[in-house]
Amino acid sequence: MKVVVIGTGFVGLPHAAVLSEYGHEVYAYDIDEKRINAYKTGDREEIERYVNEPGLYPVIAENKDKYLFFTTDITEIADGTDVFFLCLNTPPNRDGSSDLSYYLSAAHHLGDLLAKRQNKKRVVLVNKSTVPIGTARLLESIMKEHGVENFGVASNPEFLAQGNAIDGSRSPDRVVVGCDHEADFSILRRIYAQFVNHVRIRYLETTPETAEAIKYVGNTLLLTYISFWNGVGARLGETHPNLRMEDLKIGVTSDSRISTWGSYVSNGAGGSCFGKDIQSLIYQLNQAGQPSDLLQAVYNINEYQKVYLIDRAEYEAGFNFNQKSVALLGLAFKKRTNDMRDSAALKVVETLLARGVKEIRAYDPLANEAAKSYWFNPEKNHLFNRIKYFNSAKEAINGSDALYISTDWEEFRGLSHTIQQEVKPPYLVIDGRRMMPDFRTLVENGYQHISVGGTYLKPTDDAPGMAEKLEAELA
Ligand SMILES: NC(=O)c1ccc[n+]([C@@H]2O[C@H](COP(=O)([O-])OP(=O)(O)OC[C@H]3O[C@@H](n4cnc5c(N)ncnc54)[C@H](O)[C@@H]3O)[C@@H](O)[C@H]2O)c1
Fold first, then answer.
1. Ligand 1 in contact with 162 (CB < 6 A)?
2. Ligand 1 close to Cβ of residue 39 (< 6 A)
3. Of the four listed, 63, 101, 159, 437, which is most buried by Cβ atoms within 10 Å?
4. Is the pLDDT assigned to residue 383 strictly greater than 90?
């Protein structure tokens, strides 16, 4: 089928690439010329500067100029296209509602083009962007306003997780398609032929409104799991020195009714979706006069997790950040991505700068460059000049007074040795991801340790017992 993917970011580019792999003729369209030019070069580094996903580059290399084409102009292409996927960014407004300006601008442009087409065969416009419940209906009215004929609208929300976009697109848990007409379901069955009647992948056909709601309910439930463990598990672990967090997790999730997913404690979940989607659903419920207390609590807990360890360092360890140098490991919102959106590190940096740190020694295996452009705005805030970037954890730690671990990159698990080599006690380690199973050695050698879900450990007479407890917990 002839397909146009509108918006080629974290969702649109992998989606276009995987569709081309299945033999559709795919046009990946974006208004960002620099981005499209980078994709057109076919150069791995250029492409990954925009979207860095494992397995993405080989799919593009294989299909570019055969099944996959990049363009900033779909005037000619629109005529004769079977399906348009709208993959536009929908960031949050200040009041939590979704900013639909990019989406609406693309929809009106499309309405203009489709109203002029010669080929009047049925065309389906599919929302892949996460948009408020009722947006497919809005899209329908926009097309009618432009005088478009013989079209259908659909909601086909994207569930991929960043860092796993290609595998997630090739082998999703489910494909949800919401349409009004059999003709449109039928076209989308041809698009997703590999998933229809699949033995494992559930292919669900429903109404557009239900499909839109599935995305919001699914994402906010995932964040609820995360906030549950942070709001209950972490709090208990920080209250009772003899409570073993990992055993608590295993004991609770051994109940087959309880999800193992999300059963970890952390310095909050970031990324472009969780925070935005929950704020949007709260807004949508409130607009409808419905209460949203549960979702509000989930959101608040998640935001609190992102910075509370800095407060703990101050009031439990008595650490004064003023004029200190802090190593910050992990800048993107999770491992295996360079995406900085809503990363916990953003809040950590802001808070550390507000507490007067002399410098932040930052390192992320993938996101240093992305972070530089995020924070390189001395005019907006000259304090960002205090962030220095390094090429390894070792270099970042060297010369610092404290360490904050914000992302769960595997390489951070082996840090206790590096710490002992590079910095002297009573150096403070703040672990937002519980990354150090062998912390015993550090505490025994005079270092201090605060982790999410654990009590503050310092080298005192009773330290050996405490350190053993921690080691057992993290093993
Ligand atoms: N990132 C994720 O992991 C993820 C997962 C599931 C769903 N989603 C949802 O998918 C949507 C897209 O997210 P994303 O992360 O890919 O966003 P993104 O910001 O990475 O990409 C959006 C792209 O749209 C382009 N664009 C903006 N206006 C345009 C226009 N008028 N015409 C053509 N292109 C235009 C931008 O230049 C950009 O390349 C959002 O609604 C998001 O909530 C994202």
1. yes
2. no
3. 63
4. no
Q: Is the CB of 266 under 6 A from ligand 1?
A: no
Ligand 1 atom showing the smallest separation from residue 165 Cα: 3
| Domain chopping of the chain, boundaries | 2-206, 216-304, 306-474
Catalytic residues: 273
In this prediction, residue 474 has a pLDDT band, given cuts at 50, 70 and 90, of low
Q: Give the pairing of strands 402-405 and 174-179.
A: unpaired
Average the pLDDT over 365-386 and give the result: 80
CA distance 297 to 216: 16
Question: Which pLDDT tens digit goes with each residue over 191-248?
Answer: 999 999 999 999 999 999 999 999 999 999 999 999 999 999 999 999 998 999 999 9
Which residue's C-alpha comes closest to atom 28 of ligand 1?
102
* Ligand 1 nearest-atom number relative to CA 159: 6
Instruction: Assess whether the C-beta atom of 129 lies below 6 angstroms from ligand 1.
Output: yes
Of 161, 157, 473, 114, the C-alpha closest to 336 is 161
Question: In 229-307, which ranges are continuous DSSP H helix?
Answer: 235-239, 245-253, 274-287, 293-305
Domain range 216-304, CATH architecture: Orthogonal Bundle (1.10)
Domain 2-206 and domain 306-474 have a common topology: yes
306-474 fold = Rossmann fold (3.40.50)
Cβ distance 27 to 65 under 8 Å? no
pTM here? 0.92
d(CA 289, CA 219): 22
**Which residue from 269, 294, 272, 268 is spatially nearest to 281, judged by alpha carbons?**
294
